[in-house]
């Protein structure tokens, strides 16, 4: 498989990561819209991207971003209702989507309130409907991802690699991490690795050991799911603050 080396950008702090990410995503959005009159963005869960979502909801991004042409997806969702504070959709709605003119019909959330296999099936259909004719999922313009202290990303957790990761676009996952809902739904690396641009946002000293293992250690995709993200044709960018990159720089 042809893959590119990740591009690393290290910033002084999380605010600088956020600023760069907002500018980069805005540029990529305009370039996608110039080409196809459409921009597709998959959001990440967790706390790290919330500052970015707020930044995109504020001036100038709010006014200069091509929201009417933007389609929003999620890389993963926790199996809770959409108004639960543990829902990735809820967090993105509260920080971003309620404040920008993205058409509601273009917000493609994962229905975390449904029985998980049913939700995964429905989201598989959503992806297919939004794809080029004959394809199973859209080639997303930008995928945002975070990473856990254990090297997980989206809801791809350390342990075994589920067969569905190789056969499906969407899968059901059960995994305990902190006090977050254990039942989850995730896109698979098949979808992530077809994206045009994958951008990891990782900040904080607690992530430093995992950043070092994933980016500078041996390729151990079972133990370090973030290593399974290797876009086939697109770019892979890691945006880190100095705290998260601390051990990397010494490696
Ligand atoms: C989720 C995620 C998950 C997240 C990481 C990092 O739904 O929990 O999408 O992969 O991105 O756990 O989370 P933090 O940003 O909160 O550290």
Report what the structure shows.
The chain is of the alpha/beta class and 251 residues long. It is 33% helix and 18% strand. It has helices at residues 14-36, 50-57, 61-64, 88-95, 116-129, 164-167, 189-192, 208-216, 242-250; strands spanning 7-11, 39-43, 70-74, 76-78, 142-145, 170-174, 183-187, 197-202, 235-241. A six-stranded parallel β-sheet has the order 1-9-8-5-2-3. The protein has a three-stranded antiparallel β-sheet with strand order 4-7-6. 6-phosphogluconic acid binds at residues 44-48, 76, 78, 88, 146-148, 152-154, 180.
Task: Please describe the structure with a list of short key phrases separated by commas or semicolons.
251 residues, 6-stranded parallel beta sheet, binds 6-phosphogluconic acid, globular, alpha/beta, 18% strand, 9 helices, 9 strands, 3-stranded antiparallel beta sheet, single chain
Note the topology.
Layout: E1 7-11, H1 14-36, E2 39-43, H2 50-57, H3 61-64, E3 70-74, E4 76-78, H4 88-95, H5 116-129, E5 142-145, H6 164-167, E6 170-174, E7 183-187, H7 189-192, E8 197-202, H8 208-216, E9 235-241, H9 242-250
Parallel strand pairs: 1-9, 2-3, 2-5, 5-8, 8-9
Antiparallel strand pairs: 4-7, 6-7
Helix pairs in contact: 1-2, 8-9
In short:
This protein is an alpha/beta fold and about 250 residues long. About 35% of the residues lie in helices and about 20% in strands.
The strand count comes to 9
Amino- and carboxy-terminal Cα gap = 26 Å
Mean pLDDT: 96
Number of helices: 9
**SS class:** alpha/beta
| Largest β-sheet summary | 6 strands, parallel
Overall shape: it is globular
The distinct ligands, each listed once, are:
6-phosphogluconic acid
Major sheet: order of its strands?
1-9-8-5-2-3
Q: What order do the helices and strands follow?
A: EHEHHEEHHEHEEHEHEH
